[in-house]
Design a protein that fits this description.
Layout lengths: L4 E6 L3 E6 L11 H16 L4 E6 L11 H7 L4 H19 L5 E5 L2 E3 L1 H7 L3 E5 L5 E3 L13 H9 L1 H10 L3 E2 H6 L5 E3 L4 H15 L1 H10 L6 H19 L4 H13 L4 H16 L2 H18 L16 E4 L3 H12 L4 E4 L3 H20 L5 H10 E4 L10 E4 L5 H11 L8 E4 L6 H6 L7 E6 L8 E6 L5 H13 L3 E6 L6 H18 L3 H11 L5 H8 L1 H14 L10 H7 L27 H8 L8 H21 L6 H12 L8 H8 L1 H11 L10 H9 L12
Parallel strand pairs: 2-3, 3-4, 4-6, 5-7, 6-9, 10-11, 10-13, 11-12, 13-14, 14-15, 16-17
Antiparallel strand pairs: 1-2, 7-8, 15-16
Helix pairs in contact: 3-12, 4-5, 5-6, 6-11, 10-11, 11-12, 13-27, 14-15, 15-16, 20-22, 20-23, 20-26, 21-26, 23-24, 28-29, 29-30
The structure holds 1,4-dihydronicotinamide adenine dinucleotide.
C-alpha cells in the first residue's frame, strides 16, 4: 500500500488499484505520484493476475490531470526538459499498456488531460453514468497539447476524426458520448462499475479481444494518402478560421495527429514529444495557463480578506427596471432557481422584459443548451409588478433604471421605506459614483455597485463596486450571489469608469483621435484585431452605440482630464445626425444591406472631414502602440490606487469584460511578456502626446528592476 495508490488482490485473481491522494479533493498527477506509480507498475509487471481494475478513491472525481503547481511551471521550462518530461511519461504509460493481463479503467467523475491519457493506456474504459463523468483532453485550452500519448492513442482508439474533435477543441465528452465514439466500452451506474469491469476481464480472456486492441493501438491508423491529405487540410482550415492563427496549440495538436497517426505508435509518440515541447514553453502557453489560474482564484475568492465574515443568503431578489439590463439580470437570477421579482413603471414594459427573459431561454433550448423544463422553472421563479411594494420581502434589490443620477436617487427615496430594513440595495450604473448614490440612501453600508455587462446572458463578468462605506459583509454577499447566478465577480473600489470602462474607454477615445489624425478606419480596426481583440475599436463604437459611448467616454474624460485622450466632436456630430451605430443602421459604417453586414458609408466622410485634425499616414505599429500602451498606463494606475487587489483582477476584467485576447493573458501579462523596459522605451516615443503616455511609477520601477506583475513560479518539475 503506497501513499497514493492502494493495490488489492480480489477474489478470482483480479487486481484492483485505487488512486486516492490523501487530503486532496481531487487526484492529480504530480511528481511524487508519478514516482509511486512507477514503482507500482514495476510490481504489477511481475504479478500473475487474471486482470487489473483501476479506479479513483474519490467519489465523482477520477483524475483532474496534471498537478496545478507543475502546470504553472510548465511554460517556463526549456524545450529539452519538456521533451524529456513527455518522453518519461510515454515510457511509463507504454509499460502500463503492456501489462501481461487485461486492464480496465473505471472512470467516475471528471477525467482530464493526464487522467484520460492514463486511461487510454489501459485496454478498456468503463464510464459511470453520473452527470459528473466527463472525459477530455483540455490541454489546448491552456495553450499546450496532450504530451502523455493523448494525440497518438486517442486516434487509434476512437478514429482520427472524433479524436481531432476532442483534442483540438479541448471539449470533454460525457459517458454516453464516450460509449458512442468507442472511448468507453460501456456506461453503467457507479455501484455496478466494478462488477461490469470483472465481467469485462472474463470477456477479454474468452475472446482474446484485449490482445487485438493492444495490437491496433500500436499500429498506424491506416489512412490512405488521399484520405489524410483531404481530412487534415479541412481540419487545418477550420482551426485557422477559429483561432486566426493566434492560438498555436490546436494547430500543433493537429500536426501531432497528422504526422503521428499513420506511423507505428512509438514513432508517433516521438512526434508528440517534439510538438509538446514546441508549444509548451511559449509565452502564449504561459498566458493561457495564467488565465486558468486567475480564473481559479476568482472562483474561490470571497471578495474580502476577513475569513470570519460570511456572506448572507439572498433568498429573494428584486430587480427594478425591466429594460435591456434589468431583464437580463432577472433571467440570470431566476434561471438559477432564485425567486426573483421584476418591477417597472408600466405593465407593458414588464411584459417586454419578460419576453426578453423568455427569448434568452428559448434561444438556449433551440441550441440544445437548455430543456423546455428550464423555461417553465425560470418562469415559475419570476414575479412581476409595477409597484415597489413587490420588493417588501426581497433580501436585495438590483436597480437597473436609466442612467440619470437624480432619477436613481429619487427612486431610492420612494423605494427604501418599502424594503426590509436589512436588505441590500445595489445599482447597475456604469458611470455614476457609488459613494454618491449610497449617500442618498439610509444604508450606505448595504449599498454597492453590481455592474453587469451587456448582453447579460453571455457576459460572465460582474464588477462588485465598493462605495466608501460598503461593508465587507455586503461585498462578500454580492460576490457569493454573483457566483450563484453563474457569473464571475471582480471586486473593485469606486472610481469613474470602475475597472473595465476606465481602461476600455481611453482606448476607444484614442481610436477616435487616430482616425481624425488620418488613420484609415479599416486599418485601425485591423491593427486592433491583429493584436487579438475580437473586433476593432471603431466597429465596437458602432456596436455599443455611439450615444452610449459618447456619454460613458465623456465621464471618463471629465474624471481623468489631466491625461485623457480628447477626440474632436465626431461622436456628438454622429449622435446629432441620429447615426447611433448598428442599432440605427448607420454610424461610422452602414449596416443597411443584407444581414446588416458592415459596409463603408460615403456619407460618413463628411463627419470625418469636419472633425479632421490631420491627414498623416499612420503606421500600423503606431496604431497598436497608442491603443494598447495607453491602456497599460491606466491599468497600472488602477493597481497603484488600490482599485483592485491583484494584477489578475485587471487582466481578467479586461479578458471577460471587453474581449482582451486571452492568449496575451491580459494587459499586465502582455507587459510581462514584452518586458516593461521595452514598453517604457516605446512610451517615450509618444510622451509628447500627453500624460496618458507617461510611464507610471510602477512601470518605471519594473523597467529598471526587471520585476514582473507575475513572477515565474519557483517550482521545479
Ligand atoms: P433601459 O432603458 O433598457 O431600461 C431601463 C428600464 O427602467 C426601462 O424599462 C424603464 O421603463 C425602467 N424605468 C425607468 N424609471 C423607472 C422607475 N422609476 N422604476 C422602475 N423602472 C423604471 O436601460 P438599460 O440599458 O437596461 O440600463 C439600465 C442601467 O444599467 C443604467 O444604469 C445603465 O447605465 C446600466 N448599464 C447599461 C448597460 C448597457 O449596455 N445598456 C451596461 C451596463 C450597465
Amino acid at each position: 500500500m503506497g501513499t497514493y495508490f492502494t493495490f488489492e488482490e480480489l477474489d478470482g485473481n483480479i487486481g484492483r488499484i485505487t488512486f486516492d491522494s490523501p487530503g486532496k479533493k481531487v487526484n492529480t498527477f504530480g511528481r511524487p505520484i508519478v514516482e509511486e506509480l512507477e514503482k507500482l507498475v514495476g510490481e504489477l509487471e511481475k504479478k500473475n493476475l487474471k486482470g487489473l481494475l483501476f479506479k479513483s478513491g474519490k467519489k465523482d472525481q477520477f483524475i483532474a490531470g496534471a498537478d496545478l503547481n507543475e502546470l504553472a511551471a510548465l511554460s517556463y521550462l526549456p524545450k529539452e526538459m519538456l521533451a524529456q518530461l513527455s518522453s518519461h511519461m510515454h515510457g511509463l504509460l507504454t509499460r502500463v499498456s503492456k501489462l501481461p493481463y487485461p486492464t480496465v479503467c473505471l472512470i467516475d467523475g471528471p477525467s482530464m488531460g493526464g487522467g484520460t491519457e492514463f486511461a487510454l493506456s489501459m485496454d478498456y474504459r468503463i464510464a459511470s453514468t453520473s452527470p459528473k463523468t466527463q472525459i477530455g483532453l483540455p490541454e489546448v485550452k491552456v495553450g499546450i497539447i496532450p504530451g502523455w500519448g493523448g494525440t497518438q492513442r486517442l486516434p487509434r482508439v476512437i478514429g482520427v476524426h472524433p479524436a481531432l474533435e476532442m483534442i483540438t477543441s479541448g471539449e470533454p465528452v460525457n459517458a454516453a458520448k464516450a460509449v458512442k465514439i468507442g472511448l468507453a466500452f460501456d456506461a453503467v451506474p457507479l455501484d455496478q462499475m466494478e462488477a461490469v469491469g470483472r465481467s469485462l476481464i472474463e470477456y477479454a480472456h474468452q475472446t482474446g479481444e484485449w490482445k487485438k486492441l493492444r495490437e491496433k493501438k500500436e499500429q498506424p491508423v491506416g489512412l490512405t494518402q488521399d484520405q489524410a491529405m483531404f481530412m487534415f487540410a479541412i481540419w487545418q482550415g477550420g482551426i485557422f478560421g477559429k483561432t486566426k492563427g493566434q492560438y498555436p496549440a490546436p494547430l500543433a495538436a493537429l500536426d501531432a495527429v497528422r504526422e503521428g497517426c499513420n506511423v507505428p505508435l512509438q514513432e508517433g509518440l516521438k512526434v508528440e514529444q517534439a510538438k509538446f515541447a514546441e508549444v509548451g514553453g511559449t509565452s502564449i502557453a504561459s498566458s493561457l495557463i495564467g488565465v486558468f489560474f486567475m480564473n481559479n482564484r476568482l472562483q474561490s475568492d470571497t471578495g474580502i480578506s476577513d475569513p470570519n465574515i460570511k456572506p448572507r443568503e439572498l433568498k429573494r431578489v428584486g430587480v427594478l427596471g425591466a429594460g435591456l439590463m434589468g431583464a437580463g439580470i432577472v433571467t440570470s437570477s431566476a434561471r438559477t432557481s432564485i425567486p426573483t421579482v421584476m418591477v417597472d413603471v408600466k405593465d407593458d414594459f414588464v411584459q417586454v422584459g419578460l419576453k426578453r427573459a423568455m427569448d434568452v431561454v428559448g434561444g438556449r433550448i433551440k441550441a440544445g443548451k437548455a430543456k423546455p423544463e428550464d423555461m417553465a422553472s425560470m418562469l415559475a421563479n419570476i414575479t412581476t409588478g409595477t409597484s415597489h411594494r413587490y420588493f417588501s420581502e426581497c433580501d436585495i434589490v438590483v436597480e437597473a433604471i436609466p442612467e440619470k443620477e437624480e432619477l436613481k436617487k429619487d427612486t431610492y427615496k420612494q423605494l427604501l421605506p418599502l424594503m426590509k430594513p436589512d436588505a441590500l440595495l445595489v445599482s447597475n450604473t456604469s458611470t455614476i459614483s457609488i459613494t454618491r448614490l449610497a449617500a442618498a440612501t439610509d444604508r450606505p453600508d448595504r449599498f454597492a455597485g453590481l455592474h453587469f455587462f451587456n448582453p447579460v446572458d453571455r457576459m460572465p463578468l460582474v464588477e462588485v463596486i465598493r462605495g466608501e462605506k460598503t461593508s465587507d459583509e455586503t461585498v462578500a454577499t454580492l460576490v457569493a450571489f454573483a457566483k450563484k447566478i453563474k457569473k464571475t465577480p471582480i471586486v473593485c473600489k469606486d472610481c469613474p469608469g470602475f475597472l473595465v470602462n476606465r481602461i476600455l474607454l481611453p482606448y476607444m477615445n484614442e481610436a477616435l483621435l487616430l482616425l481624425c489624425e488620418g488613420a484609415e478606419m479599416d486599418k485601425l480596426d485591423k491593427a486592433s484585431e491583429r493584436f487579438g481583440m475580437p473586433m476593432g475599436p471603431i466597429a465596437l463604437q458602432d456596436l455599443v452605440g455611439i450615444d452610449t459611448s459618447l456619454y460613458a467616454g465623456s465621464v471618463v474624460i471629465e474624471a481623468y482630464k489631466d491625461r485623457a485622450a480628447i477626440p474632436p466632436n465626431i461622436l456628438q456630430d454622429l449622435v446629432e445626425a441620429g447615426r447611433l451605430g448598428t442599432k440605427t443602421g448607420k454610424g461610422f459604417r452602414q449596416y443597411t444591406g443584407k444581414k446588416g453586414k458592415a459596409e463603408p458609408d460615403p456619407e460618413f466622410n463628411k463627419f470625418l472631414e469636419k472633425n479632421r485634425i490631420g491627414t498623416r499616414q499612420i503606421s500600423g505599429e503606431e496604431m497598436t502602440d497608442r491603443l494598447f500602451l495607453g491602456m497599460l498606463v491606466e491599468a497600472t494606475l488602477i493597481l497603484e490606487e488600490g482599485i483592485v487587489r491583484e494584477p489578475g483582477d485587471v487582466d481578467m476584467g479586461l479578458i471577460m469584460g471587453c474581449g482582451f485576447p486571452p492568449f496575451r493573458g491580459g494587459i499586465l501579462r502582455w507587459c510581462d511578456t514584452e518586458g516593461a523596459g521595452k514598453l517604457v522605451a516605446k512610451l517615450e516615443k509618444y510622451s509628447s502626446l500627453g500624460k496618458r503616455f507617461h510611464p507610471s511609477e510602477t512601470l518605471k520601477r519594473m523597467a529598471s528592476s526587471g520585476e514582473k506583475f507575475y513572477p515565474a513560479p519557483k517550482v521545479t518539475v
